[in-house]
Design goal:
With about 90 residues, this protein is α+β, with helices and mostly antiparallel strands. Helices cover about 25% and strands about 20% of the residues. A four-stranded mixed beta sheet has the order 2-1-3-4, with helices on one face.
């Protein structure tokens, strides 16, 4: 977690990520369960510059406290948030 005590959620909305599914992540903030909403800081980025590195697999990309999720879906992101908050 960040110094603020919140889980940092960085969403990539670059062209590749958007076309590959990040468009489905636009409403993620409202989909976070109410008990976790005040524990998550959501930031949107025009590009996280990860699609150029084959190590990270496929777009779309999301970072949860710096950990990269490739082929990110709402389900994967929510699970990662819950895991970070609950340890």
């Amino acid at each position: 977690m960040e110094e603020s005590g919140k889980v940092s959620l960085d969403l990539c909305f670059g062209t590749t990520c958007f076309v590959m599914g990040a468009s489905k992540l636009q409403e993620i903030e409202s989909l976070i369960p109410p008990q976790y909403r005040d524990k998550v800081e959501v930031k949107a980025h025009t590009c996280l510059d990860l699609c150029k590195n084959a190590t990270y697999m496929k777009a779309p990309f999301v970072k949860v406290d710096g950990e990269i999720i490739s082929e990110a879906t709402v389900e994967k992101v929510l699970k990662a948030i819950e895991s970070k908050i609950n340890g």
